[in-house]
């Protein structure tokens, strides 16, 4: 028997490799979404000596009761090291149904109306995969958290954008409420192909808290066109200056306000334990909604991650049980956190103004955006690619030359709209006092450099 020669084997192997590599490796659904600007800015923040005010996480400890709950979950019942129920650790789904049910006046079944996910990010991804089909249109109100667009595209949908428009009074410090929806423009975005509208209140990056009038506009259009609403409400407890968070799917947390009629049946409400209890690394989120919608999310969930880490869920369950006992009282963390963060916000506003940045005062969330128009007119030729939005060049310049990290707001806009909103950067003020003092020191040096 004649065996193949070594040379034949080598040539045959090379041919197979060539044929294999000729195929497209990536799935088509990844086309156009491979670049993530966060990777670049996180890398730059580590390369230089910076105060990181870009990423949205607290750099202080969660409340003592939350830390103790996690410690107990790790060191207590050994069975918490094992799998739990697929759609959520039963004590957690039970307290979420009870907490939001009593608070919002909506009867909730922990098995049918609640799904626990790997963070709110996981809830969003599961929702898009479960509900968006090829050719479906998804209306996104921008500026918008930058995962909505790629998640829509990965599911085969087509994102349709409508921009909030600023209208700050001249000579006054602007605020996030100055950014408004144009009712006519919003209505024009609805077509027979519209499947979902994505709402984010309080909004990231703007910090806008949508009013009941604005939510009624959205609700009326969703019902008129038979459209679902995904309502991202991860910052619902971070609301300032007497403003009120209202959930479009149910009702306002406090004080009680009647639901927007008809919206419970067509709304998914997304929440986050990480944002609620200042523990973003726990990655516990949830989706709440009617069973006829939730059952489709459960299908995706059971065929992807199946269930979430048990111990983190057990800790979050204890946190909500504690919060339910203290809710509305001075001891409530959901009252204490926004009170403390409002002081941080005001501190940052004053400090940024000292070097010519013009902050917009947010009504809610972790963030404020600052107008850099004066810098754009005074130093328009910062290093960068010719087609790179100015705010991205400015953010890189500030990292390298001033040691301060912020995120360019243009990344929160669709590509056609980025050129219209390239004169803002986003800062996170949910930071430790030491971080804010370090920011002040960098800004003092900057202010000295500005003096003639």
TrEMBL record:
**What pathway annotation does it carry?**
Amino-acid degradation; L-kynurenine degradation; kynurenate from L-kynurenine: step 1/2
Keyword Secreted carried by entry: no
Task: Return the Pfam families for the record.
Answer: Aminotran_1_2
Cofactor(s) listed = pyridoxal 5'-phosphate
Which keywords label this protein? Answer: Aminotransferase, Pyridoxal phosphate, Transferase
Q: Does the keyword Transferase apply?
A: yes
**Which reaction equation describes what this protein catalyses?**
L-kynurenine + 2-oxoglutarate = kynurenate + L-glutamate + H2O; an S-substituted L-cysteine + H2O = a thiol + pyruvate + NH4(+)
**Which domain of life does this protein belong to?**
Eukaryota
Matching entries from InterPro entries are given as: Aminotransferase_I/II_large, Kynurenine-oxoglutarate_AT, PyrdxlP-dep_Trfase, PyrdxlP-dep_Trfase_major, PyrdxlP-dep_Trfase_small
Q: Which parts of the sequence belong to the Aminotransferase class I/classII large domain?
A: 49-437
Family the UniProt entry places it in: Belongs to the class-I pyridoxal-phosphate-dependent aminotransferase family.
Q: PANTHER family attached here? A: FI04487P, KYNURENINE--OXOGLUTARATE TRANSAMINASE 1
Query: Can you name this protein?
Result: Kynurenine--oxoglutarate transaminase 1
Organism encoding this protein: Apodemus speciosus
């Amino acid at each position: 028997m004649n065996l193949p020669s070594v040379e034949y084997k080598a040539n045959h192997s090379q041919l197979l490799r060539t044929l294999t590599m000729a195929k497209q490796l990536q799935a088509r659904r990844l086309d156009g979404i491979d670049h993530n600007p966060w990777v670049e800015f996180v890398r730059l923040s580590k390369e230089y000596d910076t105060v990181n005010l870009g990423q949205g996480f607290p750099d202080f400890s969660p409340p003592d009761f939350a830390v103790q709950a996690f410690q107990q979950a790790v060191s207590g019942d050994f069975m918490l090291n094992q799998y739990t129920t697929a759609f959520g650790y039963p004590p957690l789904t039970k307290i979420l149904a009870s907490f939001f049910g009593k608070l919002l006046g909506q009867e909730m079944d922990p098995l049918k109306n609640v799904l626990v996910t790997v963070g709110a990010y996981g809830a969003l991804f599961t929702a898009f995969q479960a509900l968006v089909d090829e050719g479906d249109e998804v209306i996104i109100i921008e500026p918008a958290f930058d995962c909505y667009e790629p998640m829509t595209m990965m599911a085969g949908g087509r994102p349709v954008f409508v921009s909030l428009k600023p209208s700050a009074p001249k000579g006054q410090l602007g605020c996030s409420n100055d950014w408004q929806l144009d009712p006519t423009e919003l209505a024009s975005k609805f077509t027979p192909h519209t499947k979902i509208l994505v709402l984010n209140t309080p909004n990231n990056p703007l910090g806008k808290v949508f009013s009941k009038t604005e939510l009624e506009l959205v609700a009326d259009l969703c019902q008129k066109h038979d459209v679902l609403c995904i309502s991202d409400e991860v910052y619902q407890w971070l609301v300032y200056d007497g403003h009120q968070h209202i959930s479009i799917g149910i009702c306002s947390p406090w004080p009680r306000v009647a639901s927007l009629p008809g919206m419970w049946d067509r709304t998914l409400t997304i929440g986050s334990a990480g944002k609620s209890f200042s523990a973003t690394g726990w990655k516990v989120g949830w989706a709440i909604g009617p069973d006829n919608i939730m059952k489709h999310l459960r299908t995706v969930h059971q065929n992807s991650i199946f269930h979430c880490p048990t111990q983190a869920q057990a800790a979050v369950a204890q946190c909500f049980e504690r919060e339910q006992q203290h809710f509305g009282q001075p001891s409530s963390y959901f009252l204490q956190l926004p009170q403390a963060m409002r002081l941080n916000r005001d501190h940052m506003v004053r400090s940024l103004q000292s070097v010519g940045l013009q902050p917009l005062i947010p009504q809610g969330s972790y963030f404020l955006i600052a107008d850099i128009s004066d810098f754009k007119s005074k130093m328009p030729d910062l290093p960068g690619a010719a087609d790179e939005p100015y705010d991205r060049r400015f953010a890189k310049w500030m990292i390298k030359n001033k040691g301060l990290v912020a995120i360019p707001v243009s990344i929160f806009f669709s590509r056609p709209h980025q050129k219209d909103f390239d004169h803002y950067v986003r800062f996170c003020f949910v930071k430790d006092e030491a971080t804010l003092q370090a920011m002040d020191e960098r800004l003092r040096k900057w202010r000295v450099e500005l003096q003639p």
